[in-house]
């Protein structure tokens, strides 16, 4: 199985007269795990719904594997979007939901779904409406994994799941992806948890595309420096620091912008540890910057 390329060209989506997305042009390459980030209301769910053909564009177009899914029904079944609300039959038992998935989703692996249901401690005899919030999310995640759609998108699928359940989901996602690569999009506010999973990062801000880049390129846009607080402060006094964390007398500062090799060598010589930039710090910095820029221009 292989994933499909997902492309948006100058995409706009409106709710009535209110635009929720505009001018979105981006390409998500096949067989990769893509992260989709954005503040509340940035347009993530709207974008994913449009990519899954659940909401029609008001401008521009979407191409899945080079074709417009709104004109090619065959493509719709290649795309699976799992939303927080869960696209399940709420008043039918999980077992019946699996029957329905087998009919509706051409690559659905029931055996695999049942194994995951056991692993997550769910009861096949229960109905989704009788599950706790975290259990319902886990059931949605299981459907998304077992659907094995060439384009699989998870929108905040972790909501309500406890730490162990989230870890199980991440581990299973990686194992599945390694065995059956496909195009995966993960939208989440738990940035530090998905950081190591995603190969590209797309950030939406106020309905527009802020960036869509390789994770490695983003990480290269800065560094963390860790050591005694006074040494870190002295070293970073002339640098753009976008985040700090303290643990007792130890401070970690995240510096944005290019720290050249000579600076990094000097930092190490002063006893500082040099590490990669946390995606969360970059996200907060870039979103705040976009917010300030938009405010200045009004
Ligand atoms: N059904 C709807 N009717 C009208 N406006 C909507 C509807 N759904 C979303 N919107 C608006 O569209 C914009 C984008 O919402 P969307 O749900 O896509 O954001 P999001 O990035 O997924 O947010 P969150 O992280 O809070 O889930 C928001 O301004 C929101 O108010």
From TrEMBL:
Transmembrane segments: none
Family matches, as InterPro entries: AAA+_ATPase, ABC_transporter-like_ATP-bd, P-loop_NTPase
Domain of life: Bacteria
Molecular function terms, GO-annotated: ATP binding; ATP hydrolysis activity
Nucleotide-binding as UniProt keyword: yes
UniProt xrefs under Pfam families: ABC_tran
Alphabetically ordered keywords of this record: ATP-binding, Nucleotide-binding
Domain ABC transporter per the UniProt entry, residue ranges: 6-231
PROSITE patterns: ABC_TRANSPORTER_2 (PS50893)
ATP-binding in keyword set: yes
Name assigned to this protein: ABC-2 type transport system ATP-binding protein
